[in-house]
Amino acid sequence: MIKRPNILLTGTPGVGKTTLGKELAIRTGLTYVNVGELAQEGQLYDGFDEEYQCPVLDEDRVVDELDEKMGEGGMIVDYHSCDLFPERWFHIVFVLRTDNTQLYTRLENRGYTGKKLQDNVQCEIFQIIYEEAMEAYQQEIVHQLKNNTPEDLEHNLERILQWTEQWMQDHN
């Protein structure tokens, strides 16, 4: 029986998933996994996308890599997409959202340009990741979190910490 919850942090690149996930891991003792870093370390790729100038994730290999750990519980998974993961993995899903002006600046500062920059901002405008999450998971476990300011980040941390503590009380 799982004694610690699995949490998915998802959203458009640049919304603050990594910052939130790392701090959440420190405060909860849960294990943080950045899927992009996991893929890079294990070379879990299936080619290269010339248009976006990035490797193409081998989703099946990523799922295989994480499956045993997810079954044990206590994982915080950070990725900009969510429909590749089995529904059974997560107890709660948080979709981070950011104001488009801030997102544009954050992505520009990361070196995003042209189509890659525009497509990611449009993804945020049209709530693509949120809609993916609502289709991939039970709607009652999917929550949107505004993440524009340091105050938003702290509020989000507190909210997820409270949820995690309650989940562990209810399941242990």
TrEMBL record:
<dbReference type="Pfam" id="PF13238">
    <property type="entry name" value="AAA_18"/>
</dbReference>
<dbReference type="GO" id="GO:0042274">
    <property type="term" value="P:ribosomal small subunit biogenesis"/>
</dbReference>
<dbReference type="InterPro" id="IPR020618">
    <property type="entry name" value="Adenyl_kinase_AK6"/>
</dbReference>
<feature type="binding site">
    <location>
        <position position="17"/>
    </location>
    <ligand>
        <name>ATP</name>
    </ligand>
</feature>
<keyword id="KW-0418">Kinase</keyword>
<dbReference type="GO" id="GO:0004017">
    <property type="term" value="F:AMP kinase activity"/>
</dbReference>
<keyword id="KW-0067">ATP-binding</keyword>
<comment type="subunit">
    <text>Monomer and homodimer. Interacts with small ribosomal subunit protein uS11. Not a structural component of 43S pre-ribosomes, but transiently interacts with them by binding to uS11. Interacts with COIL (via C-terminus).</text>
</comment>
<comment type="function">
    <text>Broad-specificity nucleoside monophosphate (NMP) kinase that catalyzes the reversible transfer of the terminal phosphate group between nucleoside triphosphates and monophosphates. Has also ATPase activity. Involved in the late cytoplasmic maturation steps of the 40S ribosomal particles, specifically 18S rRNA maturation. While NMP activity is not required for ribosome maturation, ATPase activity is. Associates transiently with small ribosomal subunit protein uS11. ATP hydrolysis breaks the interaction with uS11.</text>
</comment>
<comment type="similarity">
    <text>Belongs to the adenylate kinase family. AK6 subfamily.</text>
</comment>
<feature type="binding site">
    <location>
        <position position="16"/>
    </location>
    <ligand>
        <name>ATP</name>
    </ligand>
</feature>
<keyword id="KW-0547">Nucleotide-binding</keyword>
<dbReference type="GO" id="GO:0015030">
    <property type="term" value="C:Cajal body"/>
</dbReference>
<dbReference type="GO" id="GO:0005737">
    <property type="term" value="C:cytoplasm"/>
</dbReference>
<feature type="binding site">
    <location>
        <position position="14"/>
    </location>
    <ligand>
        <name>ATP</name>
    </ligand>
</feature>
<dbReference type="InterPro" id="IPR027417">
    <property type="entry name" value="P-loop_NTPase"/>
</dbReference>
<keyword id="KW-0963">Cytoplasm</keyword>
<keyword id="KW-0698">rRNA processing</keyword>
<feature type="binding site">
    <location>
        <position position="110"/>
    </location>
    <ligand>
        <name>ATP</name>
    </ligand>
</feature>
<dbReference type="GO" id="GO:0006364">
    <property type="term" value="P:rRNA processing"/>
</dbReference>
<feature type="binding site">
    <location>
        <position position="18"/>
    </location>
    <ligand>
        <name>ATP</name>
    </ligand>
</feature>
<protein>
    <recommendedName>
        <fullName>Adenylate kinase isoenzyme 6</fullName>
        <ecNumber>2.7.4.3</ecNumber>
    </recommendedName>
</protein>
<feature type="region of interest" description="LID">
    <location>
        <begin position="109"/>
        <end position="119"/>
    </location>
</feature>
<keyword id="KW-0808">Transferase</keyword>
<keyword id="KW-0539">Nucleus</keyword>
<dbReference type="GO" id="GO:0005524">
    <property type="term" value="F:ATP binding"/>
</dbReference>
<dbReference type="GO" id="GO:0016887">
    <property type="term" value="F:ATP hydrolysis activity"/>
</dbReference>
<feature type="binding site">
    <location>
        <position position="19"/>
    </location>
    <ligand>
        <name>ATP</name>
    </ligand>
</feature>
<keyword id="KW-0690">Ribosome biogenesis</keyword>
<feature type="region of interest" description="NMPbind">
    <location>
        <begin position="34"/>
        <end position="57"/>
    </location>
</feature>
